[in-house]
Specification:
Layout lengths: L2 E4 L2 E4 L2 E2 H8 L3 E5 H14 L6 E5 L6 H9 L3 E4 L2 H9 L7 E3 L6 H9 L4 E4 L2 H14 L3 E6 L25 H8 L8 E7 L10 H19 L6 E3 L19 H14 L4 E4 L3 H4 L3 E13 L2 E6 L8 H5 L5 E3 L6 E7 L8 E9 L6 E4 L21 E4 L5 E5 L4 H6 L3
Parallel strand pairs: 4-19, 5-6, 5-12, 6-7, 7-8, 8-9, 9-10, 10-11, 11-12, 14-16
Antiparallel strand pairs: 1-2, 2-3, 4-13, 13-14, 13-18, 15-18, 16-17, 19-20
Helix pairs in contact: 5-6, 8-9
The chain binds ligand LLP.
Length: 415
């Protein structure tokens, strides 16, 4: 059922969003359990069934209820910080279900992850390798490592979310990766188990993934001819979603995912393959529910001011990202306007110059695709409390899965 209009009123899995707003207030993130489950099932059918290991990149949305849901579906978790490690532990993920990525890890993070016996570290630089060697030695352990390769492939996405080009800070050149793999004796407390790549995010064309797979086929065959063998290849995440029509069924994305899985199975058949998707699992399972504070004109420019802001959804300000805008009642004429929040920044906009329904003061506005990189990138700028997260369950009950931050809590940090 998902997000649909029933009697011209927007519902999530049969629950009227007007009632949700009445119960929990706005702004608020609303997630559909049905869609979350469906997304996980699609990823399982496409990838796990073909022998891939799938680890959810929890940076996309680290709500423990969502993490538990994916854990129960058998997915692992990809973490990038101590906070994410602690949250994974809190949710009951076991060490072998966790891998630690990221371009810089502190000594404390390395020690904690070693102690927790995580499956492997994705290592991105010489300094990190040396540090991990030292910490593993100190702990009397051998750390499993996948080296992150920067293949210099254009993911054809927004420059801020491209990671696989050589001007990006991520990964290491093929020469450096090759160097480490042919000098493993220098790191007796590291087990070099494979290669990891992540070329970017919100990739909607299969070609960059094909290029990556073909590149890895060639790279691994050169390494093999030099006697370098390993078992694991992690292709990262980056699978894009439809921001233009967030209510589209994920089955529309399935052929895209399948084509990548098939190509990888064919070209990299000797390896245990991994992926670490974030966005595709959560983005279109969520919306941001906001209320219109009022309308204003500046010259011939029309602004709709809502109670949600860049503090709830920074993607439009940061990447010029498109998020669709819906009215709660779908019987409205449209006009061109900017949707802006109350934050004291000109960049505080959720949509610009957009043909949207006309909204009256106090009406509800729905911003689509707010399941990924929305609440997880939230901030308290202007001392705005973090907004609550609500899950609409399979049988139509709503559950507060993160409370609205209280002002007392915000103030107490300063004492
Ligand atoms: N693996 C690694 C190493 C990553 O850096 C990322 C995302 C992922 C996996 C998951 O990528 P996904 O499947 O979600 O595309 N805040 C940006 C996205 C930043 C992505 C950072 N890394 C946005 O809102 O578009």
């Amino acid at each position: 059922m998902a997000f649909t209009y029933i009697d011209k009123r927007l519902h999530c899995d049969g629950v009227d969003l007007h009632d949700v707003a009445g119960k929990y207030g706005t702004p608020a993130y609303i997630y559909s359990e049905q869609i979350l489950r469906r997304n996980a099932d699609v990823l399982k059918n496409v990838f796990v069934e073909r022998g891939f290991k799938v680890s959810y990149a929890m940076k996309a949305n680290a709500n423990p209820t969502i993490l538990n849901l994916f854990k129960n579906k058998g997915l692992g978790v990809d973490i990038v910080s101590e906070g994410e490690l602690r949250m994974a532990e809190h949710c009951g993920f076991k060490g072998p279900e966790i891998n630690f990525a990221g371009v810089g890890k502190s000594i404390k993070e390395l020690d904690l992850a070693l102690e927790f016996k995580i499956d492997h570290f994705n290592v991105e630089s010489r300094f990190e390798l040396e540090q991990l060697e030292e910490r593993a030695k100190n702990a009397g352990k051998k750390a499993s490592v996948l080296l992150r390769l920067n293949p210099d492939i254009d993911p054809q996405t927004h420059p801020h979310i491209s990671t696989g080009l050589k001007q990006n800070k991520f990964g290491m050149s093929p020469e450096k990766v090759r160097h480490f793999l042919t000098h493993t004796e220098m790191y007796p407390h590291i087990r070099f188990d494979g290669i990891h790549c992540h070329i970017g995010s919100q990739i909607v064309q299969p070609q960059p993934f094909y290029d990556l797979i073909d590149y890895l086929e060639e790279f691994t065959s050169t390494l093999r001819s030099e006697g370098v063998e390993f078992k694991h290849i992690d292709l990262g995440g980056g699978f894009g979603v439809n921001y233009n029509d967030p209510f589209e069924d994920i089955l529309e994305t399935t052929p895209f995912l399948e084509s990548i899985a098939e190509r990888a199975k064919e070209k990299l058949r000797d390896y245990q393959l991994h992926i670490q998707p974030g966005r595709v699992l959560v983005a279109n399972a969520g919306i941001l529910l906001t209320r219109v504070l009022g309308n204003k004109e500046n010259g011939d420019h029309h602004f709709v001011i809502v109670d949600g802001a860049t503090t709830d959804l920074i993607r439009p300000a940061l990447y010029d990202a498109y998020h669709s805008v819906y009215s709660y009642q779908n019987d409205r004429p449209t006009h061109v306007a900017d949707v802006v929040g109350p934050v004291c920044e000109s960049s505080d906009a959720l949509a610009r110059n957009r043909e949207i329904p006309e909204f009256a003061k106090d009406e509800l506005m729905i911003i689509g695709s707010a399941g990924a990189y929305a609440s997880s990138m939230g901030s308290t700028y202007n001392l705005r409390p973090l907004s609550p997260e609500i899950l609409v369950g399979i049988s139509g009950e709503t559950q507060l899965i993160r409370d609205r931050q209280s002002f007392d809590e915000m103030i107490s940090l300063y004492q």
